[in-house]
Specification:
Helix content is 74%, strand content 0%. It contains 15 helices and no strands.
């Protein structure tokens, strides 16, 4: 592997790691992600329709549900990461989180009032918050450092594959078999239950290794959950980028503005997820050879180009090309950003680091979308997408400084 020395300073724990890319844990966690998103995406795209037309909720309540759900998940990712590092165990939290989400999510089918959906979504996101940080730490601990980018890319690829298949299966059940929404929601329990079985049987616990790197003479020992300074600098740059990374719902809104037909929107969305799935594994592997920093910067610059194009898209064909290119951006960055966390943070603090990473990104996503929406409403889409492009260029410029080794000029 060709490593950019300015990217990371990896701890001397390489020889104790599993060999190869697709270890049993990596494969099993990928299958769990596929099945979980398969189940989730059978429900999620239909939830606003169910709330408004079946249960009589208004748009404000729909927004309340999603705001509460995502905020809950963001804070719990930090807490579960800290607990996992303190316990030195990952699988229990991962299994508990997936089991909670998988058991409560299909209960939307039995909801008789909007607040029932709020309670179910809250419990679902509690499960996501419990599992995400320990899962990423477990994936990193189950993978040779030379293949972290490819392993995380594979996990994201399987996740996106499930996100593409779920809505298509739901559409087939609704239109082909004439099922109603509640029947589709009950059917989502099937892949969810299989995901729990795969996780329980196919994933093994991998205990975090104790710190092996040397410390400075006379330095006080660091607590087990302490994260290194380069990681904190990296996180600040990620937050800057995320401030310009507004909700992907704005892409669909822009698509309608430039003339993409409403029936074609689900096809566009499915194609977007397919591109993310197809590109995540090979482009994650590219970071194992080129270095994480180079690949992340390339992805952020591609993001800037896509957002600049969305600001001026002349018609449907251009919009389709831009959205598919946007899928490549995900392949370049989504798994690689997580792999870089594992490069920067020693094993026994990784779950805490992933908690900080996911919490920072999740909490920044809300003001990012609010800001983009305000700019769009006041001055038009060019301002909203232009801000995203500008912030992504700034983040790409700052990333090498954030990852500069101590003492470098």
């Amino acid at each position: 592997m060709t490593v950019d020395a300015r990217d990371v300073a990896r701890a001397p724990e390489r020889r104790a790691r599993p060999e190869g890319v697709f270890t049993p844990n990596v494969i099993a966690l990928g299958v769990v992600s596929l099945l979980t998103d398969f189940s989730s995406e059978m429900i999620y795209p239909l939830l606003p329709l169910f709330l408004t037309r079946v249960l009589g909720a208004g748009p404000a309540f729909v927004g309340l549900i999603e705001g509460v759900a995502e905020s809950t998940a963001s804070f719990l990712k930090l807490a579960s990461g800290w607990v996992s590092d303190r316990w030195r165990r990952r699988k229990g939290l991962v299994l508990g989180g997936y089991a909670l989400s998988s058991c409560v999510r299909p209960l939307v089918a039995a909801a008789a009032a909007p607040w029932h959906v709020l309670a179910i979504r809250f419990a679902d996101r509690v499960g996501k918050g419990l599992r995400t940080s320990p899962r990423d730490a477990l994936l990193a601990d189950s993978t040779d450092p030379d293949h972290l980018g490819r392993a995380f890319g594979f996990q994201r690829a399987m996740d996106h594959l499930g996100a593409a298949v779920g809505p298509l299966v739901a559409a087939g059940l609704l239109s082909g078999l004439g099922w109603d929404l509640r029947q589709v929601f009950w059917a989502a329990a099937v892949p969810a239950l299989f995901s729990i079985l795969v996780l329980a049987v196919g994933v093994a616990e991998v205990a975090p290794r104790p710190r092996t790197e040397a410390s400075s003479p006379g330095a006080a020992p660091r607590p087990p959950s302490a994260v290194p300074r380069p990681f904190r600098r990296y996180l600040l740059v990620v937050v800057l980028f995320t401030l310009g990374n507004s909700s992907d719902a704005f892409l669909l809104l822009r698509a309608q503005e430039v003339g993409v037909a409403v029936p074609a929107l689900p096809i566009l969305w499915a194609a977007f997820h397919v591109v993310k799935s197809v590109t995540s594994t090979p482009l994650g592997g590219l970071s194992d050879r080129w270095g994480r920093r180079r690949v992340i910067r390339l992805g952020w610059l591609l993001y800037a180009a896509v957002y600049a194009g969305l600001a001026a898209a002349p018609g449907p064909l251009a919009l389709w090309a831009l959205v598919l290119a946007y899928g490549v951006y995900y392949g370049l960055t989504e798994g690689v950003e997580r792999a870089l966390v594992a490069d920067l943070v020693p094993s026994q603090a990784r779950s805490t680091a992933y908690g900080w990473f996911h919490t920072a990104v999740g909490l920044t996503a809300l003001p990012a979308s609010l800001l983009a929406g305000a700019l769009w409403q006041a001055w038009g889409p060019a301002w909203a997408f232009g801000l995203g492009a500008a912030l992504s260029v700034a983040a790409a410029a700052l990333l090498p400084l954030a990852l500069r080794p101590p003492g470098a000029n």
